[in-house]
Amino acid sequence: MQSDLKEIAHMTRAAAPPLQRQTQSPTSSKIIEIRVKGRWIPVPALIVDGNDLIARGKWLRVAVVRSEDMMEAELENPRLYIEKLRGDGKSLLKADLFTFTQKVPASQPKYSYPMERESVAGIRLASFKEWWEGLPQETRKNVRRAAKRGVVLAVKDQLDEELVQGIREVNDDSPVRQGMPNGYYGKTCEETKKLYGEFDGRCTFICAYFENRLIGFLHLIYRRDVASILNLTTKPSQFDKRSANALVAKAVELCESKGISYITYGLHRYGNKNDDPLRVFKIRNGFEEVLMPRYFVPVTAWGRLCVTAKLHRGLVGILPNWIIKIGLRARARWVEFRSQPV
Question: What's the CATH superfamily of 126-260?
Fold first, then answer.
């Protein structure tokens, strides 16, 4: 549901949900702060069934449950959310459309609302051995190369000061990531701790070290029988160490030991965008496409019109792939030009 060209190349750090600080309110509405591209922005939220409902978009306001893709369980009664959006005209939150999804692996539709299949990147984890043997030979070599080139892996359940400083160094390795400005670049220790501390108590940081310095990390969130990769970041300057492949392998090994049946990593396909480097990485590391029901329930007449005309898909879901490629290349060149030292 990207609503403008600036978000055409957004990758699964789509996966990364907005973080919040909240202002207490005795009513069912409140103002919270969400992080957008490294900045805190106050937005209205509606409390429904104990969850925060926020809206995104400009010309089409789409209501979503905050951090839905990292929740331990899927929404139990979506009708409550729909009735609240339609019936509470005094609410701070204004939306045209409400969207929600089912949790992997429940791929059979449970509701009669308008629905499309969402392409989720997932690993059905029977065993580490089965996953490993299904990988391309080059990926297995990269995992071994990481060890041979001195990469040491460690698992941490606490975001301590040492890890915060290490994450800062990883994020500050380059001001540009995937052809976009790096929103995590230049953050203070306090800001970094806030950005990565939301799921404290049900998450793990898998860390890759080289010569006792952090060169990459994987932030894994536990959702009962499912684990989701919220963030996987490595230093571009240490690309030859192949730490990203080693981090994924360690995550699979760890999840097997915990009896987790599925690992997800954002989306497998983003609209009509093909040949995406992140998608290629996921495929090479054993992530397959899992088609999950995503529901789009109109709240207003404008929302109903947009769903009928498929406008809720945004530009990345409407434009042909060749136009998206041109837009991505143009933006990458512009970002590279802007990042050059004066």
Answer: Gcn5-related N-acetyltransferase (GNAT) (3.40.630.30)
